[in-house]
Amino acid sequence: MPRRDPPRRQVAILAGGRGTRFWPLGRESRPKQLLALDGDDPRPLLLSTYERVAPLCDAGGPFVVASRALERPLRRLLPARARARLVLEPMPRDTAAAVALAAHAVRCDAGDAPTAVVPSDHHVAPDAGYRKALAAALSAAAAHDRIVVLGLPPTRPETGYGYVEAGAVVKRTPGGRLREVLRFVEKPDLARAKRYVRTGRHLWNLGTFVFRPSVFLDAFARRFPEGARALAPVLASRTWRRGLAAAFAKVPKRSVDHAVMEKERGLLVLEAKGFSWDDLGSFDAVLRHAALDAAGNALGRDGVALSASRCLVRSADGAPVVLVGVDDLLVVRTADATLVARRGRGEDVKKAVEALRASGRERLLR
Fold first, then answer.
1. Full-prediction pTM beyond 0.90?
2. CB 46 within 8 A of CB 121
3. Which of 246, 278, 310 finishes a domain?
4. Helix, strand or coil for residue 322?
5. Is 285 helix (H, G, I), strand (E, B) or coil?
6. Contact 171/140 with Cβ under 8 angstroms?
7. What whole-number distance in Å separates Cα of residue 283 and Cα of residue 73?
8. What are the φ/ψ torsions at residue 246 (nearest 5 degrees)?
9. What is the rounded average pLDDT of the residues 29-45?
10. Based on the domain organization, do 331 and 198 belong to the same domain?
């Protein structure tokens, strides 16, 4: 019999985040993934992610899973070929439903090809090192018929990230060591985060999951049966877009970590190497990757600093922002709003958004 070539690798990009920690740049109509937040890279995060992973895919390019409300800006932003692989969610149902939908879309288009599901809004450098690790994870998922998680050894005691506790080494690959997953760990306190750096048993969870679609959808049905029942008409059809809205509305909101990954047994984690990574979860993270002046300021084109240090300035409308005699500030200006926050409090911008909503200023969030 003639030898059958293995199915081509695929990548699905999750682009459904709202990015409320990036107000006032980020709005409901312009969420985090559509913003240029990776240091001084002028590309929106989604576009840089798309271009980073595209070399791993076939000629159709990556799949992109996003809100239907963003269809128009996505079509403007992404290459023309991406339109055929847009997977549009009728309403937000968190990442469990999004990953299941991505797996089914790949299965309908490319069969049971090994697939990586990646976030759209992270910092990664260099691209080549990341692709090497992702390729190793795709090969492992195909060879072992198991779900593979992408992990990275922590370089600092980070309390804002989830972790994976890794066990025995299964295989050494060009992209890093393949290890058994012992358990997923929620965001730790500082003392535990410091211990994780020392022991070498815990890896940052990069939010990237690699699998054959059949393997993930089997785990989805077993571990999240209420979600699988709601999506059953969709997952059984090659013309799944027709009934998607009615089925999707019935799916409980669950993250893929809680609904599937933390419950599933036999997962593997690739202890990746060859690249740096950051979640880009707040303006504090943006400052970590921006070009700095001698005083540690990231001023962009529109900031001016006099006796100021360690500040971030972003001005969306081009108006100058002048800092005099201040330190450790995050200053973000748009045409209709200005944010001033203490450096280190970027996570609290989400609370400011909630306060604006509670005060009836919804227009500032749209």
1. yes
2. yes
3. 278
4. strand
5. helix
6. yes
7. 23
8. -65, -40
9. 92
10. no
Q: Is the peptide bond before 24 cis (omega within 30 degrees of 0)?
A: yes
Give yes or no for a contact between 231 and 251, defined as CB atoms under 8 angstroms apart: yes
Please say whether the beta carbons of 146 and 267 come within 8 A.
Answer: yes
Secondary structure class of 32 (helix, strand, coil): helix
Verify that 234 and 163 share a domain, yes or no. Answer: yes
DSSP string, 227-257: HHHHHHHHHT-TTTTTTHHHHHTTS----HI
pLDDT tens-place string over residues 51-81: 999 999 998 999 999 999 999 999 999 999 9
Distance CA 114, CA 211 (A): 5
- Residues 290/39, Cβ–Cβ less than 8 Å: yes
Can you read off the two tokens belonging to residue 335? 């045409």
Domain containing residue 335: 283-365
Give the type of residue at 130. Answer: Y
Triad 39, 45, 47: Cα angle to 5°: 125
How many Å apart are CA 5 and CA 235, to the nearest integer?
A: 26
Establish if 3 belongs to a structural domain. Answer: no
Expressed in percent and rounded to 5, the helix, strand and coil fractions of the chain are: 35, 25, 35
Q: Token digits for 300?
A: 């962009």
Q: Report the candidate in 158, 215, 152 with the shortest Cα–Cα distance to residue 188.
A: 158
* Whole-number Å distance between alpha carbons of 85 and 87: 6
Q: Quote the number of domains for the chain.
A: 2
Tokens describing residue 131: 């692709």
Element (H, E) at 100: helix 94-110
Q: How far apart are the C-alpha atoms of 58 and 77, rounded to whole Å?
A: 20
| Rounded Cα distance, 58 and 244, in Å | 26
Q: Identify the CATH number of the domain in which residue 262 sits.
A: 3.90.550.10
pLDDT at 4: 41
In this prediction, residue 40 carries a pLDDT of 81
Residue 334, amino acid: T
Tokens representing 67? 């809100």
Give tens-digit pLDDT for 143-172.
999 999 999 999 999 888 999 999 999 999
The number of angstroms, rounded, from the C-alpha of 169 to the middle of its chain's C-alpha atoms is 26
Of the candidates 341, 306, 346, the one whose C-alpha atom is nearest the C-alpha of residue 326 is: 306
Cβ neighbors of 226 (< 8 A, separation 6 or more) are 252
Residue 145 to residues 32, 141, 268, 363: CA-CA distances in angstroms? 33, 5, 10, 48
